[in-house]
């Protein structure tokens, strides 16, 4: 066991944990003030629900040896998960620490997904959906990519979760949002507090360094490359979005810059430890521009109600990043991968990435549809008229985030 690597991953685990509270604030500032607590709760409750789903089944189904498609029952209930190492998946760090690091990835995936159905889904059905989604969608895909499954055997690569985290959550969020109602609340209200969104984005940005750098599982050359690439990609994504926004609208908005930053981070996630610095910049720039066009043009034309653009940023950014990984991946940067298309590796790296992306999209979409249909047999998925009128904060949680409006009304009456 390497104590330096253990301390390094311990820090990275805490940073990735910070992403979920950060994303809760990011989303919370974007919704109506009467639904902000519910939106925050959707992310924060992910920490609770995912922890138990991961402990009981998720970790074992993801990282148990199993077969090419599904892990086995070795670690059910965290059996055999302790301070000792495991030669196949955590040869130099405690298996329990590796388990917690991966738990944080699963948690942020659920938090991302919640952005598509913000202000639109009933809370208890959402919690049930989260538990089932971790077991039936996230865990199999994690096994395919990181647990020795068929995607790994195919030769497709995903450094820190472009496929496992962002494509699964983005596609699942989109399918769930469409099932709840494509036209429901489609008239998007302006964000109620962009300062809260900014604070949340800062937490997510900081946490992403643990997300990408920690995926090396050791502070080595690959970790350092991924650190630099992550810093570059965040700025490149923000630049790409802001440039195209200025060209199209003659303005540069804060929410646009933050969305571009996220798009750049999402796009570099599958490639961070596999590509050079300039490649990272190009990937993030392309990711920022693609996400901008999907959110501002394609979304309007197709009329799907992706409430806070979880699909537009994470789904689209994950697909773009995964495919461009096959274009720019470098054996010189990381000896564990072959050269990509632009470095003389031919089309196979891109084709492998395309196969992995396509099947992950289909699998995530179908399984999400099935899970939601089953839950819908017992409960309505979408909010009712009372919840929409009075706000989810008061009706569902018995709380309000702000009281100034009510106090002002009382003062005027006096």
Which key phrases capture this entry?
414 residues; 15 helices; 68% helix; 0% strand; transmembrane; ammonia transport; RhesusRHD; Ammonium transporter
What is the secondary structure topology, with strand pairs?
Elements: H1 3-28, H2 36-63, H3 95-114, H4 123-146, H5 150-154, H6 162-181, H7 194-213, H8 221-249, H9 254-268, H10 277-302, H11 310-328, H12 348-376, H13 385-390, H14 392-397, H15 404-413
Explain what you see.
The protein has one domain (3-399): Orthogonal Bundle (Ammonium transporter fold), CATH 1.10.3430. With 414 residues, the protein is an all-alpha fold. The longest helix is centred in the middle third of the chain and has 29 residues, at 221-249. It has helices at 3-28, 36-63, 95-114, 123-146, 150-154, 162-181, 194-213, 221-249, 254-268, 277-302, 310-328, 348-376, 385-390, 392-397, 404-413. InterPro entries: Ammonium/urea_transptr (IPR029020), Ammonium_transpt (IPR001905), NH4_transpt_AmtB-like_dom (IPR024041), RhesusRHD (IPR002229). Belongs to the ammonia transporter channel (TC 1.A.11.2) family. Keywords: Ammonia transport, Membrane, Transmembrane, Transmembrane helix, Transport. It holds the Pfam family Ammonium_transp.
């Amino acid at each position: 066991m390497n104590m330096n690597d253990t301390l390094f991953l311990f820090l990275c685990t805490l940073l990735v944990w910070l992403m979920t509270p950060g994303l809760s604030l990011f989303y919370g500032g974007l919704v109506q003030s009467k639904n902000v607590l519910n939106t925050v709760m959707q992310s924060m409750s992910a920490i609770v629900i995912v922890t138990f789903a991961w402990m009981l089944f998720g970790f074992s189904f993801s990282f148990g040896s199993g077969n090419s498609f599904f892990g086995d029952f070795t670690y059910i209930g965290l059996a055999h998960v302790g301070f000792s190492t495991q030669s196949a998946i955590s040869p130099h760090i405690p298996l329990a620490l590796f388990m917690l690091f991966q738990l944080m990835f699963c948690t942020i995936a659920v938090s991302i997904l919640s952005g598509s159905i913000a202000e639109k889904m009933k809370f208890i059905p959402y919690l049930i959906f989260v538990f089932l989604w971790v077991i039936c969608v996230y865990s199999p895909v994690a096994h395919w990519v990181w647990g020795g499954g068929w995607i790994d055997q195919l030769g497709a690569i995903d450094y820190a979760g472009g496929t496992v985290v962002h494509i699964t959550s983005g596609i699942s969020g989109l399918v769930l949002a469409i099932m709840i109602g494509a036209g429901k609340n489609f008239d998007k209200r302006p964000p109620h507090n962009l300062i809260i969104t900014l604070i949340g984005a800062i937490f997510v940005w900081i946490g992403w360094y643990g997300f990408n750098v920690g995926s090396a599982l050791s502070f080595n050359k690959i970790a350092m490359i991924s650190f630099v690439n992550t810093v570059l990609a965040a700025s490149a994504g923000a630049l790409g979005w802001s440039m195209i926004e200025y060209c199209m609208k003659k303005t540069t908005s804060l929410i646009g810059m933050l969305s571009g930053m996220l798009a750049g981070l999402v796009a570099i996630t599958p490639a961070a430890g596999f590509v050079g610095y300039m490649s990272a910049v190009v990937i993030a720039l392309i990711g920022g521009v693609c996400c901008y066009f999907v959110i501002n043009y394609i979304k309007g034309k197709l009329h799907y109600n992706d409430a806070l653009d979880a699909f537009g940023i994470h789904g689209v950014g994950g697909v773009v990043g995964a495919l461009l990984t096959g274009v720019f991946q470098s054996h010189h940067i990381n000896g564990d991968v072959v050269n990509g298309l632009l470095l003389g590796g031919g089309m196979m790296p891109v084709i492998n990435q395309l196969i992995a992306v396509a099947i992950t999209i289909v699998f995530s979409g179908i399984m999400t549809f099935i899970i939601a249909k089953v839950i819908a047999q017992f409960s309505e998925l979408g909010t009712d008229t009372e919840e929409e009128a009075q706000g989810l904060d008061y009706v569902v949680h018995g709380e309000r985030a702000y009281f100034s409006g009510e106090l002002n009304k009382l003062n005027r009456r006096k």
